[in-house]
């Protein structure tokens, strides 16, 4: 397997072949980062949902293993999560990996509804056994799914966030990871599917809890094991068109909160695979009280892919003279800032696809999609450019957007145009190595 087909992403995860969607069962165990994922083993379109499985020792170089969970009498294998049971609460042994997933019986058939199930592994994910008394949670509402489990240190119990229906979610708790009590329902306006629930420290050193839904919107609040109390409105983290169903890793060795998203959508013509994951990002909180925002930034491991670096520095882009960045590379990690002007436009052509910075509107446009900017004097943009995507991180990750795209043919990788004098500081241009 060479992973070097024309449109194969070179530092984003794709399956060897066929369809993928949501990342599932993200867990770190004994030196190995596990990523399970929604997979159709038989086709490049959605269906036959099965958990694929890949492992990595640096979150970038992935090795795809045998599929982990196949459809059974309870249904096909929809999204879910994994944790390490350090204290043997479930009785499979201390350090067992517990995997929670939805068995998607049949949405419309009451006799075969969606239920939540458990599987476990006692050999770091090499062999996975389905629990014999599945399902562990019956059906509440038609489409309930996507269990995300975390150990809550304060109350010494497992907490599960579960999607119910419409914009409704619930929280459940358990001492043994097998019997669960539903104790709170919540609404995440405008959001459906794939919850995540985890703590982050704010600027005052306070532990805050994030309740997250598939579209990249989240609430920040407090949680004591009995009740999640939202302290913000629904905030947005993903401003692009393609980030969806993000999930964070359990049991990270250094306490980092690391997230990866499915890049929903995109075109991979004539490829043996369909769709990709985002680059893993580290999450942090900026601010405090109700004035708090989540930042996302590519994991520090990413710098190991930077193989050749230039620092062109301050440049002037004029109406007559475009600025061509000196590189022929197709895989790039580029950071630049642009000095704010009253009006006018800076175009950054990324392999023929124009990213438009419109000063008067104070917004960025990419692929007919608009991202509002803050009013910093010289906003800074970091672009991760792969064969079939651009991920944009603005002002240190305060605003982020994932975009899948198909590059234009034979275009120079990076050219800037402007209507009038525009000064830009091209801070870093890294050509990147492939992970395959
Ligand atoms: C989100 C989702 C989940 C579901 C899975 C099925 O993309 O619809 O809610 O579990 O995909 O593949």
State the major sheet: 7 strands, antiparallel
CATH architecture classification of the largest domain: 5 Propeller
Mean residue pLDDT: 96
How many helices does DSSP assign? 0
CATH topology value of the largest domain: Tachylectin-2, Chain A
The tally of strands reads 36
Shape: globular
Give the SSE layout.
Layout: E1 18-29, E2 32-40, E3 50-56, E4 63-64, E5 76-85, E6 96-104, E7 114-121, E8 129-130, E9 145-152, E10 157-165, E11 168-174, E12 181-187, E13 196-201, E14 207-213, E15 217-223, E16 228-230, E17 235-236, E18 243-248, E19 258-263, E20 273-274, E21 276-277, E22 281-288, E23 291-298, E24 306-310, E25 313-317, E26 323-324, E27 332-338, E28 345-350, E29 353-358, E30 363-366, E31 369-372, E32 380-386, E33 389-394, E34 399-404, E35 414-418, E36 422-432
Parallel strand pairs: 1-20
Antiparallel strand pairs: 1-2, 2-3, 3-4, 5-6, 6-7, 7-8, 9-10, 10-11, 11-12, 13-14, 14-15, 15-16, 15-17, 18-19, 19-21, 19-22, 22-23, 24-36, 25-36, 26-35, 27-32, 27-36, 28-29, 28-35, 29-30, 30-31, 32-33, 33-34
Bound molecules: beta-D-fructofuranose.
Residues 21-22, 38, 49, 78-79, 102, 145-146, 193-194, 214, 245 line the site of beta-D-fructofuranose (FRU).
């Amino acid at each position: 397997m060479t992973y070097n087909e024309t449109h194969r992403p070179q530092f984003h995860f794709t399956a060897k072949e066929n369809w993928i969607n949501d990342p599932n069962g993200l867990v770190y165990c004994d030196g190995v980062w596990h990523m399970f994922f929604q997979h159709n083993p038989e086709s490049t379109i959605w269906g036959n949902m099965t958990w694929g499985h890949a492992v990595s020792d640096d979150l970038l170089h992935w090795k795809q293993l045998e599929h982990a969970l196949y459809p059974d009498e309870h249904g096909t294998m929809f999204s879910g999560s994994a944790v390490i049971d350090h204290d043997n609460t479930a009785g499979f042994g201390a350090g067992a990996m517990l995997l929670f997933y939805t068995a998607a019986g049949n949405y419309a058939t009451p006799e075969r509804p969606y239920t939540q199930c458990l599987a476990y592994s006692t050999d770091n994910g090499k062999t996975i056994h389905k629990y014999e008394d599945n399902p562990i949670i019956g059906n509440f509402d038609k489409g309930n799914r996507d269990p995300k489990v975390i150990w809550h240190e304060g109350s010494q119990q497992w907490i599960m966030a579960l999607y119910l229906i419409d914009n409704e979610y619930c929280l459940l708790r358990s001492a043994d990871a097998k019997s669960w009590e539903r104790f709170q329902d919540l609404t995440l306006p405008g959001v459906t599917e794939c919850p995540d629930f985890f703590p982050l420290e704010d600027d005052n050193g306070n532990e805050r809890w994030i309740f997250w839904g598939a579209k990249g919107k989240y609430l920040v609040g407090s949680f004591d094991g009995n009740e999640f109390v939202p302290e913000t409105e629904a905030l947005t983290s993903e401003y692009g068109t393609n980030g969806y169903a993000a999930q964070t890793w359990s049991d990270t060795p250094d306490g980092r909160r690391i997230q990866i998203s499915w890049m929903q959508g995109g075109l991979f013509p004539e490829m043996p695979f369909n769709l990709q994951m985002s680059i893993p990002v580290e999450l942090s909180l900026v601010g405090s009280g109700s004035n708090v925002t989540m930042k996302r930034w590519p994991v520090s491991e990413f710098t190991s892919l930077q193989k050749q670096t230039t620092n062109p520095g301050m440049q002037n882009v004029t109406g007559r003279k475009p600025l061509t960045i000196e590189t022929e590379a197709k895989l790039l990690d580029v950071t630049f800032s642009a000095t704010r002007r009253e009006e006018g436009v800076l175009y950054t052509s990324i392999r023929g696809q124009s990213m438009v910075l419109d000063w008067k509107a104070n917004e960025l446009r990419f692929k007919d999609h608009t991202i509002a900017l803050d009013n910093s004097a010289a906003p800074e943009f970091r672009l991760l450019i792969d064969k079939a995507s651009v991920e944009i991180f603005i002002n240190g990750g305060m605003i982020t957007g994932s975009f899948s795209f198909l590059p234009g043919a034979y275009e120079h990788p990076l050219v800037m145009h402007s209507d009038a004098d525009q000064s830009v500081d091209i801070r870093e241009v890294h050509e990147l190595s492939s992970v395959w």
